[in-house]
Amino acid sequence: MAEEMKKLIIDYVKREYLEEDSGVEVTENTKLISSGIVDSFSMVSLKMFLEKKFSIKIPDEKATPEAFDSVDNIIALIKEYVKV
Amino acid sequence: MSNFKSYEECYKDFNWQQSEAELEYGKNGMFNIGYFCCDRICELGKGNKVGLIWEGFSGEIKTYTYNDIRIYSNTIAQFLKDTGLYVGDRICLFLDKVPELYIGFIGILKMGGIAQPLFSAFGEEALFTRLDDAKTSAIVTSKKHLGKVRRIKNKLPQLTKIIVVDADEVASPQVNEIHFSMEKAKKVENFEIVKSGPEVPSVIHYTSGTTGKPKGAQHAHSSIVAQYITTKWVLDLHEDDIYWCTADPGWVTGTSYGIIGPWANGVTQVVSDAGFGTEKWYAFIQKHKVTVWYSAPTAIRLLMREGMNAVEKYDLSSLRHLASVGEPLNAEAVIWSEKAFGKAFLDTYWQTETGAMVITNFPGMKIKPGSMGKPFPGIIATVLNPKNYKPISRTGTVGLIALKPGWPSMMRSYWNNPRTYEGKFKNGWYICGDRASIDGDGYFWFVGRDDDVINTAGHLVGPFEIESALLEHKAVAESAAVGKPDPINMEVVKAFVALKPGFVPSDDLELDIVNFIRKRLSPLAMPQEIEFVPSLPKTRSGKIMRRLLRAKEWGEEIGDTSTLEND
């Protein structure tokens, strides 16, 4: 499941936040917020995506730049709320 | 001891010539902001003083003395001139918060160009609208944002120069693209700064209104007279301060108080290009020993949400003075900041159009948490009756915030749009577009906007621009954008959308529309909620009743809708 999540999130980040010819590689460890790939204002749209795709509600106080700073961090956050 | 003495004394005796005299504004025929932000500081013997400490995403640090800023801005000015740009050309800065943005701003002014900074998170439609309106000749950008420029450049025939500052990384430049590296270019020790008169246009900042396209508030070089003294008195900058303004120069705070004010005062400022993060910000303050911090209510409320635990992990004892701008600072945030940092954030009120603070709290003045403070000396402010535009004398009565025209940093017009500019004046007053009341002690209390413009995280977003962009989405038949209350951002954008036949509401469609707006306009204009509706309420003439939808979001009584129906 983690692999599926990882692929889904990486694909979304590449599609929505990077230019086609950016040449930027995104892995589970790539810094997303602190590298500027996803600016802090756009974090809201990433949160919306996660909530809709995984049918969860992430409390605003948990949606910090640190929690969204890598795909690994995001997966850890989602796992707190996904019913398995 | 603060730079500001007693409010009553300063207000009574003040005139703008005092600021001009301190700056020696106009000496040897020099009025150009670029000169006052570095060359003059060097002439005062502070060339070796650090003017800018910049920290990037990955923690890399670059430091520039005032002499470095002078030489690099000369280098940029000379380069722009050599490419064939002229005095009066609009030159856009479309960059993240990199050194080239700050120093490039000064370089543009030195060669007589009109600087047009734009928020680098703007999408291509927002960028196009603003470049097209200003008939911008050149854009200074980086590889990261080049794709957006490339996609619109064919629709902008006057945009003949696309200058890429991280040039080495661009493999194959396209037509009109020029590579330029500030640090690798041959340094220009001496540049003849254009002796612009005080009324010559300096900067255009775009701002949003309820209707029509964004408007370019055009400022003149003499704005520095107000920006210098308000920085000195309200931000209380001293010789040995380390100053941090968190605003992006794509917006007016980032130029008035993130470039012009601090550099005209010759202080050291720090810039972080690493975005927001509670602990990241505290670590930044601790590392650079920031003493004066100018930030925004949204950021302060985010810090507040993280609580005292985060505060207590860092040594923030360097902080001496705090101020805030962008939207009203709620009383809770003022009180919390006193507890967390040992001093309260002082709220300051001003706008893109005013160019500098106009109503503000001052160091040493009694703070009434939640109040905007009092008019800056030299500013005559009141609230007007919205029916007859006459000043309201009764204390506590809500009216339109209005200012007597004539302060140095007031916009001189809206670019290309004098009619809208003239519409901002009633009975000899400039109407700010906000509502407030004044209490018995002369303090102003913000109530809200007087129009449909959405103030989200301190940035004004025009509903018309969002609605126009929404209509470009293949599924949208009609739409309305309103501000809805938000505990952190004050307001966020909510869109009501009626779909075209053949489309049905779904999570995927909502996400698609949200991202469509984010990429076309900006993340700030992006709706944080979309409500799909079968149709939108309209007036008899077919106009969408946006006010009705907004009132619903705010839980306000709309009253008799028959008047709206006849709008």
* Radius of gyration of chain A from CA coordinates: 12 Å
**The number of domains of chain B:** 2
Give, in order, the helices and strands of chain A: HHH
* Mean pLDDT score of chain A: 90
Structural class estimated from helices and strands of chain B: alpha/beta
Tell me the number of strands of chain A: 0
User: Mind summarizing the main beta sheet of chain A?
Assistant: none
Question: Could you explain how this protein is built, in words?
Answer:
The complex is a heterodimer of chains A (84) and B (567). With 84 residues, chain A is mainly α. Helices cover 46% and strands 0% of the residues of chain A. Chain A has a single domain, classed as ACP-like (Non-ribosomal Peptide Synthetase Peptidyl Carrier Protein, Chain A). Chain A has 3 helices and no strands. In chain B, helix 2 packs across helix 8 and helix 6 (124-134) packs across helix 7. Chain B folds into 2 domains: 7-433, Rossmann fold (3-Layer(aba) Sandwich), CATH 3.40.50.12780; 454-565, ANL, C-terminal domain (GMP Synthetase, Chain A, domain 3). Chain B is built from 17 helices and 27 strands. Chain B has a 9-stranded mixed β-sheet with strand order 2-1-11-10-12-13-14-15-16, with helices on both faces. In chain B, strands 4-3-5-6-7 form a 5-stranded parallel β-sheet.
